[in-house]
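BUG-227 | component: ligand-complex export | severity: low

The export step for nickel (II) ion jobs runs without errors, but we want the raw record kept on the ticket for reference. Input record follows.
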Amino acid sequence: MPVNLTYHGHATFSIESDPHKILIDPFFTDNPLADISADKVEADFILVSHAHGDHLGDTIAIAKRTNATVISNFEIYNYCVRQGVNAHPMHIGGGFDFPFGRVKLTIAHHGSSFPDGSYGGSPCGFIIQTGGKTIYDAADTALFYDMKLIGDHFALDAALLPIGDNFTMGPEDALHAVEFLHPKLVIPMHYNTFDPIKQDADAFATRCKDEKGVPCIVLKPGETREL
Ligand code: NI
Ligand code: MN
C-alpha cells in the first residue's frame, strides 16, 4: 500500500496510509504558508508534538469536526479530554500500536507551554511506522546526539527535520542530524513561516545530497510525495 506524505507548510504534514489519514501538528489558521484551511482537512488521527500554538494549532476544531483521535503527551491529552475531544495519552520513550501502525515518542529539546502559558508537558518527536514505511518527525528540537540511537534502531524511509534556526535546529545542525539518522530521504520543515526562521531550503537540499549523500526533497505546501 502506498504511503503518501503531504506538506502543509511550517511543521504540518498529513500522511495517507490507506485507509487511514494521519495529521501531524495541524497549524492552518494563522499559518501564512498553509495550502488549505482547517475546515477542509481530513483526519482519523492527529499527532501533536508539543503545545506551542504553531503545533497544537487547529487540533481541537479539527478533532471535533472529524472525530479524530489526538495522540500526544499526557498533558496535552488531558487538555484535549477537557475540550471533549478523543485522545490517546503517551509519553517519551513509549510506543503503541494504532490501527494505522505504530507510533513511538522520542525526546525533543524544546519547550511545550500552551498559548495561555500553562504547562504542556515535554515536547516530543515521533517515529511513525505505517504501511511498511518508517518516518521520523523530529518536530521542534535542537540537535541531540541520541539521534544516533534512532538511526541505529530504525531504518528510516524519511526524516522530517526542522531547518529554520532560531527556535530549532538550523541547516548546519540538521546536516549533523542527517549523519546520525542516515534516512533514505530528508524533508526540511519549520522554515520561512516567520521572519526569524527564513532559510534557503534548496541550498540545504543541495548540501544534504552533496555532503551527506542523502536525497532531500523540498516540498511546497500542498505537495505530496509517495514514500
Ligand atoms: Ni515550538
Ligand atoms: Mn514551532
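Assignee comment: Attached the raw record above. Helices lie at 53-56, 59-66, 74-82, 147-153, 171-181, 201-212.
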